[in-house]
Amino acid sequence: MTNHDAITDVPGLRVGHARVAGPRALSGTTVVLAPEGGAVAGVDVRGGGPGTRETDALDPRNVVRRIDAVVLTGGSAYGLDSAAGVMAWLEERGRGVRVGPEPSHVVPVVPAACVFDLGRGGDFAARPDASTGRAAVEAAAATELHARVGTGAVGAGTGAVVGGLKGGVGTASTVLESGITVGALVVVNAVGSAVDPETGALYGEYFHGRPAHPEPAVHEAARLRLAEALARNTPPPLNTTLAVVATDAALTRAQAQKFAGTAHDGIARAVRPVHLLNDGDTVFALATGAREPDPDAGPLALNEVLAAGADLVTRAIVRAVRETAEGVTGPGGDFPSYRELYGPAPLVDSRSNKGS
Fold first, then answer.
1. Which ranges in the chain belong to alpha helices (H)?
2. What span, in angstroms and rounded, lies between the C-alpha atoms of 138 and 12?
3. SS3 at position 284
4. Cis-peptide, bond into residue 128, ω within 30° of zero
5. Which member of 187, 302, 310, 327 lies 3.0 to 4.6 Å from 336 by CB, making a disulfide possible if both were Cys?
6. Which residues, listed in sequence order, are joined to residue 32 by a DSSP beta bridge?
7. How far is CA 290 from its chain centroid?
8. Bridge partners (DSSP) listed for residue 174
9. What is the DSSP secondary structure assignment for residue 167, as one 8-state letter?
10. CA end-to-end span of the chain, whole Å?
11. Which DSSP letter does residue 35 get?
12. pLDDT at 196 (0 to 100)
C-alpha cells in the first residue's frame, strides 16, 4: 500500500472537495466517504458555537449503527444544506439505514459540521448548497483507493482563516506497531492562532521535537504585516476547527466517541486558545473495522489509537497552515498565508510516529 500521509491511508476511505463558483465566492465542502457498508462513527463537540447536523444520531445510546459519509463545509449553518446533496447521492445507490422492504428504501445518515466563512470572498450569499455537497461526494467516489488528498485552500478550507492567517485543509496518517492504521483530516478556521507570537514558530511543531524558528527579523516583519491585515479586517463573529479521525481498527460506538474526544487534544496543542464561545470545534471519528483487536491485548490496547489520533490532528493542522501557499486579499478581507510571511520550510516527517 502506498502511504500518502493522509486519511485515505485508512483502507476504504475516500475524500472529495468542491468549491463554490464565482469571483466573490470563497467557500466549499469536503466529504469523507466511508467504504460500502459504512463505518462505525462517533463525535465530540467542544466549541461554544457549533453548527452541526445529525450529530445526535452518533450517540452510542441511539439506533444508528454505521454511517456512509461525513460532511465538512463552509457557509456557516447555511452550508449544512450541502449534506442534502450527499444524502441524495447515497440514496441513489441504496446506501443508508434500511427502513422498508425494498433495497431502495433507505435513509442515509450524513453527519455534518460547518465553519464560518460567510463573506470571505466578498459575497455573503456565496455559500455551499446541495449541489456543492453532491460535487464533493462525486469527487470522492471518483478517486482511487489510497489516493492523495488535496490540502490547503480547498473544499471546506477554501475560505478558512486561523488567527488572521489563511487557514485550510490538512491531513496525516500513521501505521502503529500493531499494524493498525490511523488517519486524520482537519479544516483549520480558528479564532485562536496557530503561531507562537514570541518566535513565529507553529505551536504544533513544538510537539515534534524540531520546531522551526524563523529568523527574528523575518518574524518581526511578519508580525507587523499580520497586525496591519488584522487592523483592516472586520473581526469574524464565529470560527471553527473541524476534524475527522479514522482507523481501520474495529471499535464499538462508545470507543469511537472516545476516539473523537481525545482527538480534541490535538487541536489544543496546535491552536491557542481553543473551544471558545465563538468556536464550533467538532471532531468526528470513523472506524472501518477491517482489523480486529488482539484478544490478548485487553481494553487498554485502544490507548495507542487514541494517542495517535490526537498526534495526527496536531500534525494535520501544521500541514494545513504550511501547505496553504497563497493568502487572500479582496473585498472580504486581507488574509496572508504563513508561507508568504515566513517562507517555505520542510515539514517534520512524523509518519513513523507510534502514537506516543
1. 82-92, 130-141, 216-232, 253-270, 302-322, 338-342
2. 15
3. strand
4. no
5. 327
6. 15, 70
7. 22
8. 182
9. -
10. 24
11. P
12. 93
pLDDT digits (tens, 9 = 90+) for 92-148: 999 999 999 999 999 999 999 999 999 999 999 999 999 999 999 999 999 999 999
pLDDT at 350: 40
Which residue type, as a one-letter code, is found at position 90?
L
| Residue closest to 288 by CA, chosen among 330, 238, 347, 248 | 248
Can you give 228-264 as a three-state secondary structure string?
HHHHHCCCCCCEEEEEEEEEEECCCHHHHHHHHHHHH
Helix/strand/coil for 146 = coil
Q: 283, 313 in Cβ contact below 8 A? A: yes
The 10s digit of each residue's pLDDT in 268-278 is: 999 999 998 88
Q: Hey, what amino acid is at 134?
A: R
Strand partners, 107: 97
Per-residue pLDDT at 299: 80
Rg of the chain over Cα atoms, rounded to whole angstroms, equals 19
Can you tell me the distance from the alpha carbon of 16 to that of 134, in angstroms, rounded to the nearest whole number? Answer: 10
For residue 68, which amino acid is it?
Answer: D
Residue linked to cell 486579499? 329
Hey, how many other C-beta atoms are within 10 angstroms of the C-beta on 341? 21
